[in-house]
Amino acid sequence: MHLTYNMVGKSVRLSRILKSDGRAVVFAFDHGVEHGPSDFPPEHVDPRVIIGKVVEAGVDAIMMLPGIARITWDLWGNKTALIIKVTSKTNLRPRDERLLQSVFGYVEEAVALGADAVAATVYWGSQYEDRMLQQWFAVRNEAESYGLPCLQLAYPRGPAIPNRYDVEIVRYGARAAAESGADLIKTYYTGSLETFKQVVEAASGVPVLMSGGPRREKEVDFLRDVKNVLEAGGRGVVVGRNVFQHKNPTGMMKAVIGVVHEDLEPEEAVKKYLEK
């Protein structure tokens, strides 16, 4: 069977994100919109500072919105893979509308920036689920024509979901992401190796990346979560706050990379990269 041009393009671009071991460490940098600039320590409000640090650490890819990609291109260009997120939302909007992601960029902009993939969020279970699915399919279909992989941030959130980290809820979202055509899935960690294995199984072969979530007090605890995800069959992590809110973001990113790509135990990674 001969592959189509876009199938080849998608495979090439995915290989820039998922390395030869099939794993990836992605730096998430959409927090300035999703949470506001107060999420950053003062020294990292300037995006160029933290992006320079994670690129230096050797991160596999950076996921960010088009505007920040444009003003930092000289830092990441030809040094790491780029994932352009084309949906987002602010916490300035009324609370009952925060379960809706809005258009925040276009696939054509991702292509123009030289992106290796695009990303969009679906809040499975939200009262606005249908509107986000319309956005998702518009993005996915256009990206397909360009040979761009699509990462879905599959986040179960809604008035009928009391615990977004419950394994039955998370695996449902992962399955829905796979069935809606995601090439990569980012979702919540369910708290254990055993439960996250069920999430990976529900994704039916689509690579699953752990969402880094809020900053953990002890870095070794976060690294243990990452290790469990890998042992459950997950392909890596999309991490933001646990790196840019750390006092040593370069070292923390190297520690995450050490666990994912060097098979270091969490304690080994802390000792090698953070206890200097």
Descriptive account of the structure:
By secondary structure, the protein is α/β, with parallel strands linked by helices. It has one domain: Alpha-Beta Barrel (TIM Barrel), CATH 3.20.20. Helices cover 45% and strands 17% of the residues. It contains twelve helices and ten strands. The chain has helices spanning 5-17, 31-34, 47-57, 66-76, 107-113, 129-146, 167-179, 193-202, 219-231, 241-244, 249-261, 266-273, and strands at 24-29, 61-64, 81-85, 87-88, 102-103, 117-124, 150-156, 184-187, 208-211, 236-239. The strands form two sheets. An eight-stranded parallel barrel has the order 1-2-3-6-7-8-9-10, surrounded by six helices. A two-stranded antiparallel ribbon has the order 4-5. Strand 8, helix 8 and strand 9 form a beta-alpha-beta unit. Helix 3 crosses helix 4. The chain is globular, with a radius of gyration of 17 Å. The relative contact order is 0.14. The mean pLDDT is 97.
